[in-house]
Amino acid sequence: MAIAPGKNQTAKQPSKLNDPRFRALLFQIIASVTVAGFIYWLVNNTLHNMALRGISTGFAFLNNQAGFSILQSLVEYDETHTYGRTFVVGLLNTLLVSGLGIFFATIVGFTIGVARLSHNWLVNRLAMTYIEIFRNIPLLLQIFFWYFAVAINLPGPREAIQISDLAFLSNRGLFIPRPVFEEGFGITALAILFAVIFVIFLARWARRRREMTGQPFHTVYVSLGILFGLPAIAFIVTGTPLSWDIPEMGGFSFSGGLAVIPELFALTLALSVYTGAFIAETVRSGIQAVAHGQTEAARALGLRHSWTLRLIVIPQAMRVIIPPLTSQYLNLAKNSSLAAAIGYPDLVAVFAGTTLNQTGQAVEVISITMAVYLTLSLVISVFMNWYNARMALTER
Amino acid sequence: MADFTPSPDLAPPSLTVGPLGWVRTNLFPDPFNSVLTLIALYLVYLTLPPAIDWALLKADWSGTSREACVSGGACWVFVHARMNTFLYGFFPESGYWRVNLLYFVTIALLIPLFVKQFKYKVILAAINLVAFPLLVWILMSGGVFGLSHVETSNWGGLSLTLILAAIGCVAALPFGVLLALGRQATNMPAVKTMCVVFIEFWRGVPLITVLFMSSVMLPLFLPEGTSFDKLLRAMIGITLFQSAYMAEVIRGGLQAIPKGQYEAADAMGLTYWKKTGLVILPQALKIVIPGIVNTFIALFKDTTLVIIIGLLEVLGMVQTALNDPNWLGYSTEGYVFTAAVFWVFCFSMSRFSQRLEARLHTGHKR
Question: Do B220 and A377 touch (CB under 8 A)?
Answer without folding.
Answer: no
